[in-house]
Amino acid sequence: xxGVTQTPKHLITATGQRVTLRCSPRSGDLSVxxxxxxxxxxxxxxxxxxxxxxxxxxxxxxRFSAQQFPDLHSELNLSSLELGDSALYFCASSxxxxxxxxxxxxxxxGSRLTVL
Amino acid sequence: DQQVKQNSPSLSVQEGRISILNCDYTNSxxxxxxxYKKYPAEGPTFLISISSIKDKNEDGxxxxxxxxxxxxxxxHIVPSQPGDSAVYFCAAREETSGSRLTFGEGTQLTVNP
Lengths: 116, 113
What we know:
The complex is a heterodimer of chains A (116) and B (113).
Chain A: E1 5-7, E2 10-13, E3 19-24, E4 31-37, E5 44-50, E6 53-57, E7 64-68, E8 74-78, E9 87-94, E10 106-107, E11 111-115
Parallel strand pairs in A: 2-11
Antiparallel strand pairs in A: 1-3, 3-8, 4-5, 4-9, 5-6, 7-8, 9-10, 9-11
Chain B: E1 4-5, E2 10-14, E3 19-25, E4 30-38, E5 45-51, E6 56-59, E7 62-67, E8 72-77, E9 86-94, E10 101-103, E11 107-112
Parallel strand pairs in B: 2-11
Antiparallel strand pairs in B: 1-3, 3-8, 4-5, 4-9, 6-7, 7-8, 9-10, 9-11
């Protein structure tokens, strides 16, 4: 158990629908990152939050949005889903920048999204 | 623009032999490199890292080598064990990007008994 909790583990939905993926970071970690892994691809960075504020954006579609709440958990919202959005979505967390161990991300087990 | 590339999708070795996984990068601003291991149905787990000011870092059976002039790093596993069979991801951090990591595509390592 990495300490990063992601729910749901599996999700099957239809095109055009909207889903929300949830992540609870490891205790004490202030930064949350979302990554997408499509079939046979590496992990693509989507977005980062630090202590409730958006810190960096990567290849995140406009149909996707995220937020980090005061209790530091984060949600990734995916809307108007398309077949190509089927992927593994990973959440990772790290301590605040400059903190010990800040360079290492700790990953959750992922949420597998299947869009039919 | 793939800034971190792992050109070998798969590698198969015999138990007890050396496994060498390779990774190339293009961004000269990367200052910290990591290797992650991923088993099926699990998230990636941190394995070993190296700062750009070093050329080698060793942790037990795992050694990472960095060749900055060639923009190349490699992970050596000696001796390889069947439990090492997993997907290995190379990742890099840019100095100005905080802790955000850029990942390669991964290499599936299979260690045969």
